[in-house]
Amino acid sequence: MCGGRGTRLGGDAEKPLAAVGGRPMVDRVLDALAASGVETAYAAVSSHTPRTRERLVARRNGEGSGREGESLELAVVDTPGEGYVADLRAALSEGPTAPTLTVAADLPLLDGSAVDAVLDARAAADADALSVRVPAARKRELGASADAATRYDDAGDAEPDDGDSTGDVPAGINVVGALDGAGDEAVRATRDARLAVNVNRPADRRLAERILRGDPDAPARPTGGVEWLDRPDSWSAADGGEPS
């Protein structure tokens, strides 16, 4: 998802083009997808991100991204720019078949192993969709912003994050099912920094850069698979289904 304005991040660059460690975030996310088992990526842009669209078209054509010849097939999809949900629906209507991995362009610590771990978790759950979440307390522990995120209570209902350390916030990477919401959804939570650091504010960018550099006082960037929190399985059975 590459269509947001990113006003909280500041600066003149469109949010997907904001550089973290000298490389635009959208390229870092696409690098992670290219290093995973994903074969085709649909990059959803909007009228708010014309320069992002230009860069993605150039990358699709093998120009200037530093990733010429990669196997990831890239399609650029124009969306109305009316918000995350509306743009996601527009992108999903362009051809991806459910289940579909969705990734925000503000996860610069993402890598191929983490992407594959999310896909494997959905397959292991044998669910139509997977919601990936991070404890709000972990976001604060890392020093990452969570003030504008959604918190989930124990019943799975969404409400604004009010600093409750028991709540979870969305990770920015999920697997979605049918557009009409039919099917069941599994929920997995993790403390993994690769999925926990969304760059929404200048402090988030500084945090991500410290982690990428491996600064001694920075949180470690995990490698390999994602460690999921040991919780009872959570399900939302929109069609009355049960976990197998």
TrEMBL record:
MF terms (GO), sorted A to Z: nucleotidyltransferase activity
Family annotation (InterPro entries): MobA-like_NTP_Trfase, Nucleotide-diphossugar_trans
Region (Disordered): 144-171, 208-244
Residue ranges of coiled coil: none
Source organism: Halorubrum hochstenium ATCC 700873
Biased composition (Acidic residues): 155-165
Protein's recorded name: GTP:adenosylcobinamide-phosphate guanylyltransferase
Protein keywords: Nucleotidyltransferase, Transferase
Feature: compositional bias, Basic and acidic residues: 208-218
The organism's place on the tree of life at top rank: Archaea
Start and end residues of each MobA-like NTP transferase domain: 2-144
Keyword field contains Nucleotidyltransferase: yes
